[in-house]
Amino acid sequence: MSKKRGAIQSTKLLRPIVVGDFILENFTWRTVKFGKKLIKIKILPFKMQYIKPKIIQILDKSNPIFESVSRRHIYRPYVDMWTSDNEIFHLVGSNVIYDILKPLSLGKDSNQIAEEISKKYKVEKEKIGEDIKEIIKFVKNNILKEELK
Predict the structure, then answer these.
(1) Rounded to an integer, what distance in angstroms lies between the CA atom of residue 8 and that of residue 17?
(2) What is the pLDDT of residues 133-146, one digit of tens each?
(3) What is the C-alpha separation between 69 and 52, in angstroms, rounded?
(4) Residue ranges per structural domain of the chain
(5) Residue 48 in contact with residue 121, Cβ under 8 Å?
(6) Which of 74, 93, 108, 125 could make an S-S bridge to 51, C-beta 3.0–4.6 Å?
């Protein structure tokens, strides 16, 4: 194959996102589907160590719907998980939470998920079993409540 002279080449530069005084790392969003409900999770590159996962509700439980579309909204930098119903959450250990929810959406049980995560992060299965059950319980009770009826 020959290259044309003067061909335009485009490149995508990855730059860190600056929010106030904080520099956030580059990230990607991955989607997990439970029936009709979509859950988008912010994945941070190079975060391959096991971090005890935690889901933190940003908005009040009585009205968990995020109604703003502004990219400059005060909550936007803290959103790590976004549902198709516009519920938003902050995550600790977002990569681990994705690694829990993806196999769960494919029908795997908590023991199978614990086995996969223990291999990936080189952590003892017994140490992470309770963490996984807590995340699954939170997701089923707070996010997938309509999907499980």
Answers:
(1) 27
(2) 999 999 999 888 87
(3) 31
(4) 17-143
(5) yes
(6) 93
Residues facing residue 91 across a β-bridge: 55
Would you say the pTM of this structure is higher than 0.70? yes
- Which amino acid is residue 81, in one-letter code? M
Asked if residues 131 and 140 have their Cβ atoms less than 8 Å apart, the reply is no
Q: Do strands 28-34 and 54-57 pair parallel, antiparallel, or not at all (unpaired)?
A: unpaired
Instruction: Specify the range with the lowest mean pLDDT, choosing from 19-28, 49-58, 77-86, 116-125.
Output: 19-28
- Asked whether 3 and 53 are in contact (CB, 8 A), the reply is no
Residues 6+ apart with CB under 8 A from 50: 93, 96, 117, 121, 122, 123, 128
* Residue 142, token pair as written in the block: 């707070």
Q: How many CB atoms lie within 10 A of CB 141?
A: 10
Q: Cα angle vertex 133, ends 38, 53, to 5°?
A: 70
Q: Can you tell me which residue has the tokens 């319980």?
A: 137
- C-alpha closest to that of 71 among 23, 19, 13: 19
Buried b (16+ CB within 10 A) or exposed e, 97-115: bbbbbbbbbeeeebeebbe
